[in-house]
Amino acid sequence: MRRAIQTSLALLLTMFVGVGCSGVAEQQASTSQEATAQEQPVKQEEQKTITLGITQIVEHPALDSVRKGIVDALADKGFKDGENLNVDLQNAQGDMNNAISIAQKFTADQKDMIVAIATPTAQAAAKATKDIPIVFATVTDPVAAGLVEALDKPGDNITGTSDQLPMAMQVDLIKKFIPGVKKIGVIYSSSEVNSEVQVKDIEASAKERNIGVEKVGITKASEVQSGAEALAGKVDAILIPVDNTVVSAMEGVVTTALKAKLPVFASDTDSVKRGAVATYGIDYYKMGYQTGEMAARILKGEATTANPVEVTKDADLTINLDSAKAFGLQVSDELKKSAKEVIGE
């Protein structure tokens, strides 16, 4: 009888322990689920996909290099397209109306940031929104373009990088190739503030050197070649500013100028690779990368659009020996040695 009672008590004790353990396990599981539920929003926040709108005014090698530099810099700083970054790339094809529509669409989509490549797209984005952060690239004079109040204090929701270089460098370069130059021809887009600023700089620099300037204003890429034809017989050389519309039709300028034996000089390195004689130019991939780094800092909260506009300080000499020969120009050994890149040697 005693053994039976002991056995029954042991069984009851085992049942109570089992129930207790089960209750503890259920409580632990419940606590674990609650903790997981509490952690989930944090993980979702960490994995939020940034929506980035990139608007580019037109396709040409310099601006394409800028775009690649931007995307590469963002990736290197942890923002990778297709992972935690969704890049919406739009090209205005040289049409300001398209640029305005793109900027309005980005605003309606509530992008986390807009990156504008070149002055017209930056202007369109600035008019479309005062809330979304805007970072521009390759805007020659952001103040004259009405984008910022001052380079050191941009104001509003916009900042970026400027490719402003003194045009005196290009005028002096032409003199090194053509010591007796009397008049320089300039083809530029009359609708781009960026270009008008450069033309004024060219005129001032040329005047200081007793050189005349013949200007041809165009409104679209299809007019560029006829602009070059209009300069034939009137000038000693053509200088192309950093003008997106003209640069997009560089081959047409070079073809026309070759027929007239009228040397073409550029303000960007890619145009030299496409047939211009020489330039003191900017590495536009590096400028794009610099812009991408600015964008990444803002996205991370390490900087804001109140940070100063960054102006490039570097310009390297690039010479195309094949083009110089085709235009009947001699290239001194001194010039060759001072060039960062010599094409055709």
Strand content: 15-25%
- Based on the structure given, which CATH architecture of the largest domain is correct? 3-Layer(aba) Sandwich
Instruction: Find the count of extended strands (DSSP E, 2+ residues).
Output: 13
Number of domain modules: 2
Count of runs of 4 or more consecutive helical residues: 13
Helical fraction equals 40-55%
Category from helices, strands and their pairing: alpha/beta
Order of strands across the main sheet? 2-1-3-4-5-11
- The CATH homologous superfamily of the largest domain is termed Response regulator
Query: H/E series, N to C?
Result: HEHEHEHEEHEHEHEHHEHEHEEHHE
How is this fold's topology laid out?
Layout: H1 2-46, E1 50-56, H2 61-76, E2 85-91, H3 96-108, E3 113-117, H4 119-128, E4 134-137, E5 158-162, H5 168-177, E6 183-189, H6 193-208, E7 212-218, H7 224-231, E8 237-239, H8 244-247, H9 250-260, E9 264-265, H10 269-273, E10 278-281, H11 284-299, E11 310-311, E12 316-320, H12 321-326, H13 333-338, E13 341-343
Parallel strand pairs: 1-2, 1-3, 3-4, 4-5, 5-11, 6-7, 6-8, 8-9, 12-13
Antiparallel strand pairs: 10-12
Helix pairs in contact: 2-11, 3-4, 7-9
